[in-house]
From TrEMBL:
This is Conserved oligomeric Golgi complex subunit 8. GO terms for cellular component: Golgi membrane; Golgi transport complex. The keyword Lyase does not apply. It is a peripheral membrane protein. The keyword Secreted does not apply. It comes from Phytophthora nicotianae (Potato buckeye rot agent).
Length: 314
């Protein structure tokens, strides 16, 4: 521009402002024509700006609401995560039960199976069930996990059934039994007590246990002995005593035979078997009491002599 002005003459320089004015007016006219021709573009642009402004305001408002809701959302997410963990744990338990269904069924049926065996006097099978239960429960006790509520319940039920079984065996000893069955029942008691001792706390010593078992045996058999003389009529003292002597002679012999077959006849520490000695002393004392009560009721001396003679054959 400066180079062109230097080459211009004075007249041309004087006309330059007018020429520039005309050029500026032309440019303004062109701009005006362009604006008029494209006015809708400016209107749309303005409308778009207004819409964008409104949308940005709405977006800002929604963003503020979301920011305010984030803590609560985090809380719900944490709760949901916890619930999901619980559901997963329960699902794991259900899956475990499904995978071990047969084993669990066997465990849950132990009390009912044991009860059925005891009710039907299948004592060998009952002892096998108790042994299986002890092994299963011992494995659970040895596990590092906490005790299971179901297992604890089963342990209590089995313990109750064991008590019922032992009482039933003792009740059998209070009945009229042959030697073979008597030996078998005491054998059941020994096996049952051995299983109880293994599963429970440390039991008594062998000698002390044998002493207790002998005393239980004699006490139960004594109930049977007592029942034999209950049906004898005491209206005739002589006949009553004779019948009592016959019954006691036979029953005492049977009981001592059973006792010797089960526990042996050896002396304990060079002395007579203490439980048997105490039983014999008490039984003879009871028999003497019967004689002292009934003999004064007999007037015939020969009858008294016969009774005393029969009494010497015990």
């Amino acid at each position: 521009m400066q180079a062109s002005l230097k080459t211009c003459s004075l007249e041309e320089l004087k006309k330059e402002p007018w020429r520039l004015q005309i050029q500026a007016d032309n440019t303004a006219e062109q701009l005006r024509s362009l604006v008029l021709k494209n006015y809708h573009v400016f209107i749309q642009s303005n409308q778009c700006a207004a819409i964008v402004k409104d949308d940005l305001a709405d977006l800002k408002e929604e963003t503020t609401k979301i920011e305010a809701a984030i803590p609560e959302l985090q809380k719900y997410c944490a709760e949901f995560q916890k619930e999901v963990a619980d559901v997963v744990a329960k699902h794991g338990d259900i899956q475990f039960v499904f995978e071990h269904y047969l084993q669990l069924t066997e465990l849950l049926e132990i009390p009912q199976l044991l009860e059925a065996c005891i009710h039907n006097e299948l004592f060998d099978s009952a002892l096998d069930v108790i042994k299986f239960a002890n092994e299963a429960f011992q494995a659970d006790e040895n596990a590092e996990t906490s005790r299971n509520v179901v297992i604890d319940c089963l342990v209590r039920e089995v313990a109750e059934m064991i008590g019922i079984m032992r009482e039933k065996l003792l009740q059998k000893l209070r009945e009229d039994l042959q030697l073979a069955l008597c030996v078998r029942i005491v054998g059941y008691l020994r096996r049952l007590d051995a299983l109880i001792e293994k599963h429970g706390a440390a039991g008594v010593g062998l000698l002390e246990y044998e002493k207790q078992l002998k005393e239980e045996f004699l006490a139960c058999r004594n109930v049977w002995l007592s029942s034999l003389s209950r049906g004898i009529s005491s209206s005739d003292p002589y006949q009553y005593i004779i019948q009592v002597i016959d019954i006691k002679r036979t029953s005492w012999f049977d009981l001592i035979t059973q006792y010797s077959a089960i526990f042996g006849s050896e002396n304990v520490d060079g002395k007579v078997d203490p439980p048997l000695c105490r039983w014999a002393t008490a039984t003879v004392a009871n028999f003497i009491q019967i004689l002292m009560k009934q003999l004064p009721k007999i007037d015939d001396f020969s009858s008294i002599a016969t009774i005393l003679e029969q009494s010497l054959f015990f």
